[in-house]
Amino acid sequence: MNDMSSAPVASPDHPPVIRRLDYQPPAWLVPTIDLDFALSLDSTRVRSTLTVTRQAAGAPLRLNGDGIAVAGLTVDGHAHNAWAMDGNDLVITLPGDRHTVAIETVINPVANTQLSGLYASGGLLCTQCEAEGFRRITFFPDRPDVLSRYGVRMTGDAAQFPVLLSNGDPVAQGKNPDGTHWAQWNDPWPKPSYLFALVAGTLVASRDRFVTQGGRTVDLAIWVRPGDETRTGHAMRSLIASMAWDEAVYGREYDLDVFNIVAVSDFNAGAMENKGLNIFNTRYILADPETANDGDYDAVEGVVAHEYFHNWSGNRVTCRDWFQLSLKEGFTVLRDQQFSADHGSPPVKRIEDVRILRAAQFPEDSGPLAHPIRPDSYQEISNFYTATVYNKGAEVIRMMTVLAGPERFRQGTDLYFDRHDGQAATCEDFVKSIEDGAGLDLTQFRRWYEQAGTPRVDVALSHAGDTVTLTLKQTVPPTPGQTDKQPMVIPLRTALFDPATGRHAGEHLLVLTQAQQSFAFTGHASRPVLSINRGFSAPVAINNPTPDADLVFLAAHDDDPFARYEAMQQLVVQHLVAAITDQLSDAARDLGRASIGEAMAAILADPALDDLMRGELVILPGEAYLAEQLSPVDPTRVRAEREALKAWLGTTLASQWHALHDRTSAVAYGLDAAARGARKLKTQALVYLAPADPAEAIRRAAAQYRTADNMTDRQGALMVLCGLDGPERDAALADFHDRFADNPLVIDKWFSLQAGSLNPGAIDHTKALAHHADFTLTNPNRVRALYMAFAANTAAFHDPDGEGYRLIADLILALDPINGNVAARFVPPLGRWRKIEPARAALMRAELERIAAVPTLSRDVREQVGKSLNG
Ligand code: B3K
Ligand code: ZN
Q: Which atom of ligand 1 is nearest to the CA of 382?
């Protein structure tokens, strides 16, 4: 038996595993590429001319392809026969060290339902090349460490494709006698193929200008379908604010004379940072008060900023290979979070970011798909655009800011951009730059890049004499492929409150580096109340069972707004976990509820709180985060106990909720924090009243719906009505559909509200909606609107008969041949079976096995299902 016999042979059932440590520098570079497109919706001809230079003696030129064929090939202007296909790759044997290779391909954009490469969206032609879409357009070394200067010429019918856009600067254009026209774009900045973009079609621009700190005037344009230009103002303001912020905070200036954004309706992701030509999902561009809620406004601002910030963190400094994805994504998420915090309420932004982390990333870390922020292997890179790489990646870099402080961190990022501008860099390059620039030793800290799993910190506090001793113990749970974990560096901002005065004597930054460590503090005559991981300084789970009275105290008095929120969350989590696991006597339940009611009443009455923050403090911990505290979990119990607590709070504080709804309903619409805070609380009041007094909730929600002059109020009211039954529900749903029938983004909301509803009929409603005339499997937004909302609706998804699992498995199988990338996103909800009580776990597993038995699965779904069953 030789060594190879144990290695699985790559086949559709076993896609090859790509490993980080196998990285080899490219054998050939491509300093320039000239692309010539003859555009057509169903048959676009692509002529690609590459100059190639040899880096490794003897190696042939290997160009990646995917679903394309060579329609013509020359080398140095002559026919060349020394080439062959090796699977999808085109391998060309070349005699010298420098050649010009010209290749022709023909592609069919309308048939491209995967929405990767060049595809059609409602008559437009557009591209999505990250991570490996460029190889669906032409043959190329489609890897991020091959940087080229791009020249792009496009020719197309002038009536069908009046607007022709690509990266960089427009340098020439003209008309042809046959009714076609052409445009030439040159991008002076060398870039990897994943940043290439092209858009052609009927679009209108909203325009503005930005003058950089160095005096460059940049023409800004946001291109949308005719009719949508009235909804681009918020995106444009966000773009201009981002450009100014990146100069002020990171010293980063824009580097071209034009910056174009295009919004398209069919898009797998949220947006794409193509150099000088960002392409967006319409949902992250279009916003006006009537059709976008406050969350949508924030999302537009955040995503516009994120893509813009990539111009430096991603484009000027790009990634050496896809294992380094968090280099650009983690850092850019941190940058967009910081920007949004600076433009709104920093504590509220922090709370929202932590809520996302806990709802989306903690479950990843504790499940079969757990991976470090810098993964070690993958089968399909699209599966690694995860909350771990993005959001935990941002948290890891945020910890560097905590350790260094803002000024020294900035010295680190300046050094990083100086050192690596124009390069394809690694996470290690980033860490080293921060180390050198900020003067930190990050040797042990690097484990955050290596180890998966959410570290848990167990806290014990003892008090003797005037000394407090805090003993912290850390454990990093085992994850697939990583059984033994080493201690992490965990920076914990901490304060010790004197309950008598309600104050503390200053915050400490405790840096936990060992498995167990004790920290002593003197000068505490009485036992203090501990406030730990303030501001969520480390992405860890703190285990610190705390008396309710201390949490009520912190929820009312902590001077760190995040810690106040956290105290309230912990108070509720402790109570609900005990209730769900049957550990509460009737008396204990009454006591627990009384504490929560007391804390909630204090929050509602506190005049020092602004409404935006009050709105965060009154939201109960989400079902996904609660489920994380339990193993195994019975999702029905989580829903039931959480709703029971809401009903109790709705009843006990009924007059406060009524008063709150009345007060906030009197606040006029505006985008200022006070008006936004009022809107947030207005619907929250209804959320508590709904299970307590449905008739009153319906009356108020129906009135809120009728009188709404904005989407936040209208959608909030409809959500509450949707969760209850009655003619008001049906009338409001019908009205909403009629009113917004022409607006796909709002119709997406109409689908989501019903699939994600607390209504006991949600599963039947979802099944019916899948057959609605407005439903289609070819539009990712619509698919996600219906089925992601459903999969996140725990009680419906975890229907005891397994009907919810079947629905999602059927969707995966139907969608996979159309769009494997989006289909694979629905596997993780089923993959959590190990955490679910045994009867349902078996049903979930059976659905995964049913999917796995299909021989023709995409690599995307194959990898996720395989890991979910075996990981
Ligand atoms: N970089 C893109 C993500 C593309 C997703 C490809 N599967 C958007 C972003 O993170 O900015
Ligand atoms: Zn990004």
A: 7
Atom of ligand 1 nearest to the CA of 381: 7
Question: Measuring from atom 8 of ligand 1, which residue has the nearest CA?
Answer: 272
First to last CA, the chain: 27
Q: Rounded to whole angstroms, how far apart are CA atoms 288 and 135?
A: 38
Strand ranges for 70-216 from DSSP E: 72-75, 78-79, 83-86, 89-92, 98-107, 117-121, 124-128, 148-157, 163-166, 169-175, 180-191, 198-201, 204-211
Please give the model's pTM, rounded to 2 decimal places: 0.98
404: preceding bond cis by omega (within 30 degrees): no
Ligand 1 pocket, residue 336 CB under 6 Å: no
Quick one: which atom of ligand 1 is closest to the CA of 269? 5
Closest C-alpha among 459, 455, 444 to residue 489 = 444
Degrees, nearest 5: CA angle 366-369-375: 105
Per-residue pLDDT reduced to its tens digit, 415-463? 999 999 999 999 999 999 999 999 999 999 999 999 999 999 999 999 9
Task: Please name each of the domains of the chain with its CATH number.
Answer: 29-226+238-279 (2.60.40.1730), 317-450 (1.10.390.10), 461-541 (2.60.40.1840), 545-652 (no CATH), 654-729 (no CATH), 740-871 (1.25.50.10)
CA-nearest of 684, 734, 688, 733 to 713 is 684
For residue 5, the model assigns a pLDDT of: 40
Residues shown for the chain:
871
Token code pair at residue 379: 């089968």
Considering all CA atoms of the chain, what is the largest pairwise distance in Å, rounded to the nearest integer?
94
pLDDT tens per residue across span 217-272: 999 999 999 999 999 999 999 999 999 999 999 999 999 999 999 999 999 999 99
Residues involved in catalysis: 307
Label residue 12 by pLDDT band (50, 70, 90).
low
Determine whether the shortest distance from the Cβ of 131 to ligand 1 is under 6 A.
Answer: yes
CA distances from 557 to 347, 606, 805, 860 (A): 15, 10, 44, 49
Ligand 1 atom 3: residue of nearest CA: 272
Q: Is the CB of 271 under 6 A from ligand 1?
A: yes
Peptide linkage before 632 cis (omega within 30 of 0): yes
Average pLDDT over residues 79-98: 98
444 CA → ligand 2 middle, Å: 27
The torsion defined by the Cα of 838, 843, 844 and 845, in degrees rounded to 10, comes to 90
Residue 10 pLDDT > 90, yes or no?
no
Element (H, E) at 319: strand 318-319
d(CA 305, CA 402): 23
153: Cβ contacts below 8 Å, ≥ 6 apart: 34, 35, 36, 37, 182, 183, 184, 185
pLDDT at residue number 239: 99
Q: What is the Å distance from ligand 2's center to 598 Cα? A: 42
CA 425 to ligand 1 center in whole angstroms: 18
d(CA 689, CA 781) in angstroms, rounded, equals 31
Rounded to whole angstroms, the Cα distance separating 473 from 142 reads 45
Rounded mean pLDDT, 2-17: 61
Q: Is the CB of 380 under 6 A from ligand 1?
A: no
User: At residue 480, does pLDDT exceed 70?
Assistant: yes
**164-208 pLDDT tens trace:** 999 999 999 999 999 999 999 999 999 999 999 999 999 999 999
- Give tens-digit pLDDT for 626-667: 999 999 999 999 999 999 999 999 999 999 999 999 999 999
How many angstroms separate the Cα of 568 from the Cα of each of 525, 558, 593?
27, 11, 12
User: 496-508, pLDDT tens digit by residue?
Assistant: 999 999 999 999 9
- For residues 84 and 198, give the distance between their C-alpha atoms in angstroms, rounded to a whole number: 29
Question: Which residue type occupies 652?
Answer: T
Task: Compute how many other C-beta atoms are within 10 angstroms of the C-beta atom of residue 790.
Answer: 29
Residue 143 has pLDDT above 60, yes or no: yes
